[in-house]
Each structure stands twice: as structure tokens, then as C-alpha cells.
Amino acid sequence: MIAALRKEFLLQWRTRAQAVAVFVFGATSLLLFSFAIGPNSAALRQHAAGFLWLGLLLSSTLTLSESFHAEMENRALEGLLLLPVSPRVLYYGKALANTIQLMLLGIALVPVMVVLYDAGTTRIPTVLLIIVLGTAGISAPGTLYSAMTSQARAKQTLLPLLLFPLIVPVLLASVKATSFAILGDPMEQGSRWMALLIAFNGIYWSLCGLLFDRVVED
Amino acid sequence: MPMEPLAIDAAHLARRYGRRWALADVSFQLRPGQVMMVSGRNGSGKTTLLRILSTAIRADGGRATVAGHDIVKGRDEIRRATALLAHQSYLYESLTARENLEIMGGAPPTSAALERVGLLERANDPVSTFSAGMRKRLSFARVLLQKPAIAFLDEPYGQLDPEGFVLVEQVIVELKRGGATVVVATHQIDRVAHFADTKLALENGRVA
Question: Residue B80 to residues A16, B108, B129, B143: CA-CA distances in angstroms?
Fold first, then answer.
């Protein structure tokens, strides 16, 4: 597992220019979404959480669709599968690395959201926790679908088509929980949405790990 | 006297791609420590045979045991016992030669393997800067690190220079001396013939 994670981090570090491009794409998306609302600070603040997660979701498809590019070059993934290594270890290594990459992207987009949408909050640890859970909930099925679509010609189109319907619960829970963290949560409803996020993470991470070897084996 | 278990026992192996049978009714047996040369024209089924035996792909018919394990039920055991030098290098372009060997897990003696294939000086260069021949050498280092009981070498001479040809032969002889079984699919029939113990010729996916 450590070797699998090390490989992922090395690959990500060597292609770090792509991470910068993905961040610029996410920040640009947030800027364009703010134009749709107009100069209404109350409306901007109200929709900030939704736009943050939409920006993160759109950016994640760029990251996820490329996450198996290096594996398919020279059939490196097949080479790893022929080693006495469980495909599950490879899956969890990649899914974890994707989670960390998306989490860092999410954290980097928060200040952009605060500036553009006037959506400051004092509940920073809560927002960070929601980003961790939300990005993990996107990464687990996203990594599986990325493996499935990696050899397809239209992978950039196929991946969101498959992924978006599946992660609606995670997206909804992340938006709601973030919204409560930004706008205030007198009834403590945010924790329920976070519990839902944890539950879906449990389902996605266990199911996708089980299915991965069926996806990658001949 | 008990009979020595076979390294490979293949019976009626078959595989098709779409409607075309790439391999049909291929049977053979190979004892441990033997070198077998698989020859045949392009598209005769050499690569498909090696990929089935190394569990990279599944057979559509027939059965086989490799290192005493069934190719369907004992995939993990077979993967522990075998190594495949494939047409594709199995290398990550953005990683260095050393990193490509290190990601195989554990703490293998990567420097020794790199020195063996003549790439120690380029150990810290990314694979993307390597020529086709150097990639082939690095793939060989990958096979050596696995210390296989059975090695499948698919066109091992491809893209190599004359020095590389000698290296391939030395490695095969070393593997054989170490007790490994080696299956070599090649067009270089004359080169391999003098150290091969047995031969299998394929034509249109069948034993010729």
C-alpha cells in the first residue's frame, strides 16, 4: 500500500503543472458563476456553497479523467497487476491520492469563494472536514469510473455522464453542510448532512474497492 | 520414483478476439528448468499464448497449469511465480528508471538490476528520455527483480542493439542455470535455437 501511494504521489508531483491548470479552471468557474448571480451580495453568499461544490465537481472530472493516463501508457497498470499485488491495493492507493489532490484543490478554492461571494465563515475546521468527506465521496466512485473509461475514446464525456448521477447524494450533502457552515446552523442540521456524507463514503469506498478488480482484469 | 511436476501443462488452449481465433487448440508440456522457443509469423498467436500463461488475459477455451497452479483459479500464485517481458514496456514515462523498479514494492536491489542491464548511469533519468532499446533493457531489469520461477519473454531481442542481444542470451542462460523455466517467443530462431531445449511452432493460432 505504501509503495502504491508513493507511486501515486510521484506521478502527481511529476505532473504538478496540471494541478495548477485544474485550480485555474475551478477558480474561473467560480468567477463565471458569480456573474450569473450579479452584484447581489446576499444572493451570492446564499449560493456560495453550491457554486463551490459545482466548481470542485467540474474540476474533479479533469483530474479524475487523467488519473489513469499514466497507467495506460505502456500498459503500466497491466504490469502492476501481474505482480503479486492485490488490485484493491492499487485502487485504494489511487483513490486516496485522488482524494488528497481534490481536497487540496477544494481548500485552495475556499479563499476564492470567500472573496468572490463574500462568504466568510469562522467555522473553518467544519468546512475543512466537509471538504475532506465530500472529495472522498467523489474520488471513490470517480477513480473506479476513471479506470472503466480510461481506454474509451470519449473518456472526457463518458466519465461525467457515469459519475454525476451516482454522486448526487454526496454533492447534495456537501452543499447543504457547507451552506450551514457559512450561513449559520442554529438547529445543528449540518451534522446530519455530514453523517450522510460519512455513510455514503462507507458505501462507495467499500463497494468500489470490491468492484475494481473486475473492472481492470481482462 | 515420483514424477517431477510440470512447469507448464497446457491443453487445448484457445482465445479469440471478436470472431477471429488468435489461438486454437494449443497443447504442450514443459518441465522445470527448460527453455522453450515459441516461433511463428506475426499474428500466429505467440503473444496471445504468453499473455494467457502469464494470466495477463484469460483463455476462451482449454485449460492450463503454470507452476502447478490453474490459470483461472490460481492467478495470484502464478503471478508470484512468473514474470512477463511483454511488447509493452510496463514503464511509467514520468518516473525515473530507479523509481520504476522501486514501485514494484519492498526494497529490491534495484542498483544491481540496473547495473546488470547497463542502465546504472541513467538510473535517475526519467524513462521519457530513454530510447526504445533502453526501455527494453529496463523491462528486463524488471523481470530480473521478480526472480521468477518461470519467465515469459515476448520478442526479447526487439529494439535491442548487438550488445543487447548478448545481454538477452546471458540473462536466459542465467535464468536457466538458476533453475527457472523460460519461454521465449521470437523471430530470432537461429539465435535461440542453440540454447532452447524444446520448440513450439505456431501458425494461424495452431501448433504447426
Answer: 34, 15, 31, 12
pLDDT at B9: 95
Of A73, A80, A218, the CB nearest to B93: A73
Whether residues A82 and B56 touch (CB distance < 8 A) is answered with: yes
Domain count, chain A: 1
User: From CA A197, how far away is CA A169, in angstroms rounded?
Assistant: 8
Q: Which residues of A touch B83 (CB under 8 A)?
A: 82
Yes or no, beta carbons of B94 and A83 under 8 Å apart: no
Pair B187, B27: CB distance under 8 Å: no
Residue B193: which CATH number?
Answer: 3.40.50.300
Domain that holds residue A29: 2-216
Find the residue in A nearest to B107 (Cα).
A3
Rounded CA gap, B169 and B36, in Å? 13
What is the torsional sign of CA B22, B28, B31, B33? Answer: negative
Rounded to the nearest 10 degrees, what angle do helices A124-149 and A87-117 cross at? 130
Domain of residue B188, residue span: 32-58+75-207
pLDDT at A119: 84
Residues 121-180 of B with CB under 8 A from A: 126, 142, 146
Contacts of B88 in chain A (CB under 8 A): 74-75, 78-79
- Residues of chain A with a CB closer than 8 angstroms to some CB in chain B: 3-4, 6-7, 10-11, 14-15, 70, 73-76, 78-85, 218
Nearest residue on chain B to A9, judged by CA atoms?
Answer: B95
Given a cut of 90, whether residue A7 has pLDDT beyond it is no
The number of folded domains in chain B is 1
Mean pLDDT by 10 residues, chain B (208 residues): 79 93 93 94 94 94 94 93 93 93 76 91 94 94 92 92 91 90 93 90 90
Q: Report the alpha-carbon distance of residue A207 to residue B17 in Å, rounded.
A: 30
> Residue A118 has what pLDDT?
86
- Which ipTM did the prediction report? 0.87
Inform me whether the pLDDT recorded for A154 exceeds 90: no
Average pLDDT value for residue range A61-89: 88
CA B186 – CA B41 distance, rounded (Å)? 9
Render pLDDT for B20-76 as a digit per residue (tens, 0 to 9): 999 999 999 999 999 999 999 999 999 999 999 999 999 999 999 999 999 999 999
Nearest-CA neighbor of B189 among B53, B44, B56, B52? Answer: B44
